């Protein structure tokens, strides 16, 4: 199998748009499975977790394989609920192409837009599939207008639906010539013009009146789609199996295959960790270059460790198939990589694409075992779950016997509770979730530490700290010469700065700042390699004490749609919640308003909205970044561990911890 015969395709959408049903029908139409599963009945192939079958929603990205007209297609069905956006993020990194599903009934929703912008930032070629064309009241024209307005003006339909709503019976291909071979049909002309809008050479030919034959137009469309300049739109009803074969045809013809050389240097990335009851821990690997075989020794570049492959397997229909080896461009579950984590690079990093950043946990919550005696079991279970979803970011405070997780929302908490009980036999209680704030320096300043007592020790550091615009994160650099401070010591400082910024003056992570090491000094005899582990947090906190910090709160971009009569009350509530919004619009008796709102003030509002409107009001939201909180906001968090500003106490604490390791 060559890379030309392979496709790596992610299925993305807002919840309930029909991703899993579409994937199930793709597997069925390709002959990969003989009987159709059902999301509602809990029998869909890619909903393998017990909690997914019970609730009818996807929680984890599921990888499977099908074959279509000589093409080997790796399909990853991703969750649609915003609480599981981290699964979408990790899957997106390893895809060469995407199918974005839009429900004809609900149109473009908040998750649709979030995923779309991430796909565009990575320039992943994308087909748009409009599902549920058989639903009452749908309009192909309306949903296409919405796609062009909210996603891209370069979304081009390749089909015209035959009937709509209850009368939907299939599609005509615009690329098929009329019976008399005539090419001047309006929809065909519009398709040619849409291609010409983004292709200068074609535009010149169109201006000169040169006819473009369907076969050539197919070739042009495929090229422009693979370049991420055009986005074909297809229609169907997955529940009834209408449009699935055409979707597979277009995915094989228009989405690109991977690149890579089987004989080249090994280059791959771990994007998913799963545990199998019989086989144990599986690391899902996308291989970009080289070949991986059973019993191969593999270098984990990220962790600088060597591991040995024991088995390579791929999901094929309802069973795993042993591969023996994995080739460039392919995806499989690799066993034996016991130390590898999500995001780790295997071999060379040269071909590995960047990871998108769309999933941002906004809540922190404490979790406790209902049976106190099972505290240690809970620690191990949460460590395992964090291994599979790093964004949970388990904070274990052994001295306080506290366990804290970062989560996206209430649905994720329900799923975690269910997983802990069904998989580990643990019943748990969650505390009241609280919003995750951040801090940023209020002004520029300087931090200094001369850690020279009690001997033997010697580490002198001076940092400058400057605030940066929102969204900048941490920018670190050093201006110190290696003769003043050895490179190995400077590397230790660089490693410790992000750790030191995890808790600022108010207890929250410090972000959007530039930290520059401007002075550093070691002593030939007195400096110990660990001295800079102790000194760096003290120097950073000394600097933050000089600059002061400003509290930042997370903001959500929202869209509320509701019956018109509730508009006035909703606008009043939005003002009280400190929302900033555009002038509302009213269409067909529906009131719609968009804007940004603090996460802290709006946590309970979706529930209130549903109650107020009898379930007819909907609030869709996505993360919009952090901005300065009002001065009166009181959100300081209790510091964990000893504060480096209390230098004597901190030195004793850290030195005793280091000596006991």
UniProtKB/TrEMBL annotation:
<keyword id="KW-0342">GTP-binding</keyword>
<dbReference type="InterPro" id="IPR035647">
    <property type="entry name" value="EFG_III/V"/>
</dbReference>
<dbReference type="InterPro" id="IPR053905">
    <property type="entry name" value="EF-G-like_DII"/>
</dbReference>
<dbReference type="InterPro" id="IPR005225">
    <property type="entry name" value="Small_GTP-bd"/>
</dbReference>
<dbReference type="InterPro" id="IPR014721">
    <property type="entry name" value="Ribsml_uS5_D2-typ_fold_subgr"/>
</dbReference>
<dbReference type="InterPro" id="IPR041095">
    <property type="entry name" value="EFG_II"/>
</dbReference>
<dbReference type="Pfam" id="PF03764">
    <property type="entry name" value="EFG_IV"/>
</dbReference>
<dbReference type="InterPro" id="IPR000795">
    <property type="entry name" value="T_Tr_GTP-bd_dom"/>
</dbReference>
<dbReference type="Pfam" id="PF22042">
    <property type="entry name" value="EF-G_D2"/>
</dbReference>
<feature type="domain" description="Tr-type G">
    <location>
        <begin position="4"/>
        <end position="259"/>
    </location>
</feature>
<dbReference type="Pfam" id="PF00009">
    <property type="entry name" value="GTP_EFTU"/>
</dbReference>
<dbReference type="InterPro" id="IPR020568">
    <property type="entry name" value="Ribosomal_Su5_D2-typ_SF"/>
</dbReference>
<dbReference type="Pfam" id="PF00679">
    <property type="entry name" value="EFG_C"/>
</dbReference>
<dbReference type="Pfam" id="PF14492">
    <property type="entry name" value="EFG_III"/>
</dbReference>
<dbReference type="InterPro" id="IPR000640">
    <property type="entry name" value="EFG_V-like"/>
</dbReference>
<dbReference type="InterPro" id="IPR031157">
    <property type="entry name" value="G_TR_CS"/>
</dbReference>
<dbReference type="InterPro" id="IPR027417">
    <property type="entry name" value="P-loop_NTPase"/>
</dbReference>
<keyword id="KW-0547">Nucleotide-binding</keyword>
<dbReference type="InterPro" id="IPR005517">
    <property type="entry name" value="Transl_elong_EFG/EF2_IV"/>
</dbReference>
<dbReference type="InterPro" id="IPR009000">
    <property type="entry name" value="Transl_B-barrel_sf"/>
</dbReference>
<protein>
    <submittedName>
        <fullName>Ribosomal protection tetracycline resistance protein</fullName>
    </submittedName>
</protein>
<keyword id="KW-0648">Protein biosynthesis</keyword>
